[in-house]
Amino acid sequence: MNFDYIIVGAGSAGCVLSNRLTENQNNKVAVFEAGGSSDIWKVKMPLALLYTMHDPKYNWKYYSEPEPNLNNRRLFCPRGKMIGGCSAHNGMVFVRGNRNDYERWENFGLKSWSYDKVLPYFKKIETWSGGENQYRGSLGPLTVNQSKNDNPLFKAFINSASEAGHTINPDMNGEDQEGFGMFDTTIHEGQRASVSKCYLNPAKKRKNLNVFSNSFVEKIIFDGKKAIGIEVKIKNKVQKIYAEKEIILSGGSINSPQLLMLSGIGDAIHLKDKGINVVNDLKGVGKNLQDHLETYIMQECKTPDTLYTYTKLIPKVMAGIQWFLSKSGPCSKSFLEAGGFAKSSPEREIANIQFHFFPSFVIDHGLVNPSSHGYQLHASPNHPKSRGLITLNSSDPYDYPKILFNYLEDEDDLKQTRECIHVARKILAQPSLAKHSGKEVGPGSDKKSDEELNEYIRSKAETAYHPCGTCKMGVDDMSVVDENLKVNGIQNLRVVDASVMPEIPSANLNAPTLMIAEKASDLILNSAN
């Protein structure tokens, strides 16, 4: 089989590329996804997101190596393994990042990735419920809605943030990101608006798009330093499939560097150690791994307004029936919709902390039900200085890679995390939450010293599920792709996903990933003309 373009991975970026590259009917495109269909109720129901997160049929379910600065805990690292990728199981919070994020990218020598250059692509993605303006789009494939979740805890929380001295921000994707309010969501008419639903499904009708699910790409095929095809297992048979124009890796921040290394692109010493022939010595492959590390400030709730209600059989069944019949009720929401951005201390120049408010306790990524009503404020530094890496366990493509985030390696990351506990406590102590608030159970009101807070963070902090940066874009020796997302030293090979981010933005990563894919589509199509 021969195609013009081969896309590896039908996650968020792969779905965008599949749509945009096939708008020209002369382009013959194939997309290969290791997982299967995401056209199931567990994906469509917003509140059911934990069902796919813990299901190996729909998730890679990676774990990190023991994290040396988190008491050697191995942290769960879920990644979507289905059509739509992480957009089919994420929290549906749509945050772009702020102007400063992309000005930092520009300052890394990436002039075409400045805020003013990427803003048109953010607008191109969306049909926003608030209507078009200088910062927002109204004609895009993805439905983005301002949350209308009327849970009384959300209103109380936002009012408390105001009482604590923070601004109320009606649009954190607009002119200014700082402040608190309701996040935008990719929920529409009570169902998840995944990228596969909004981008890929309309494109499937085109004769020039071929979607291969349950197809595992084992290796990239090269002719010298030119990528010409892939080896892919489909129905237990390995086939060679060739690309006339380009191969585009969109496997995400874990799988894309893994596939590059398996194919001979990476640090030559590491590849030779694993018995892999070196095609190109690129030392940055798998390096520069970043993530947002969240700490939960947890408080018991004296009113029955939390999701604890729906851990009981009858309310759970009734809520499920309501959603199946009318796509309404609690199952039609994610309950991650309230939050904001703030400075962790007055000396910080810009908002360096993101908060998510959740009206329930989350125990072991939702595997364990809480035993009482409660709510928690998730706090994470936006720009951690710590860097991790991904390496191969072996040359076997089915052997999971080693993932080490190296969280809190930098002392300032720990300091910022401590600071955000103080900011969170001040918000949660305001009058608007007084009628709801019970005792603090995490860290616990008696935990006040730096040492006590450090131990709470090291023993309890968890991933915000935002890995990125492992095939970073840039101009230095550790860059993997150039400004046009072409793999350095290789012809006809690009990486288009969150792995190319040189530095993590102040955001949940789905919206920035879609922006990268929209911009990459133009780069690819323009280079072909």
Q: How would you describe the overall organization of this protein?
A:
The protein is globular. It contains 13 helices and 26 strands. 26% of the residues lie in helices and 22% in strands. Strands 1, 2, 12, 13, 14, 15 and 26 form a seven-stranded mixed β-sheet that branches. β13 (215-223) and β14 form a beta hairpin. It is α+β, with helices and mostly antiparallel strands. α1 (12-21) runs parallel beside α13, α5 (115-125) packs across α13 and α11 crosses α12. The longest helix has 19 residues, at 510-528.
The profile of the biggest β sheet is: 7 strands, mixed
Task: Give me the number of helical elements.
Answer: 13
What does the average pLDDT come to? Answer: 97
Rg on CA atoms, Å: 22 Å
Tell me the overall shape: globular
Distance between the termini: 24 Å
Summed up:
Helices cover about 25% and strands about 20% of the residues. The protein is α+β, with helices and mostly antiparallel strands and about 525 residues long. α5 (about 115-125) crosses α13 (about 510-529) and α11 (about 410-430) packs across α12.
Topology overview:
Layout: E1 2-8, H1 12-21, E2 29-32, H2 41-44, H3 49-53, E3 62-63, E4 76-77, E5 93-94, H4 99-107, H5 115-125, E6 126-128, E7 142-146, H6 152-163, E8 179-182, E9 184-185, E10 187-188, E11 191-192, H7 195-203, E12 209-212, E13 215-223, E14 226-234, E15 237-249, H8 252-262, E16 265-266, H9 268-273, E17 280-281, E18 293-301, H10 313-326, E19 338-342, E20 353-358, E21 374-381, E22 389-391, E23 402-404, H11 411-428, E24 437-442, H12 450-460, E25 462-463, E26 493-495, H13 510-528
Parallel strand pairs: 1-2, 1-15, 2-12, 6-7, 15-26, 16-17
Antiparallel strand pairs: 3-4, 5-9, 7-9, 8-19, 10-11, 13-14, 14-15, 18-21, 18-24, 18-25, 19-20, 20-21, 22-23
Helix pairs in contact: 1-7, 1-13, 5-13, 11-12
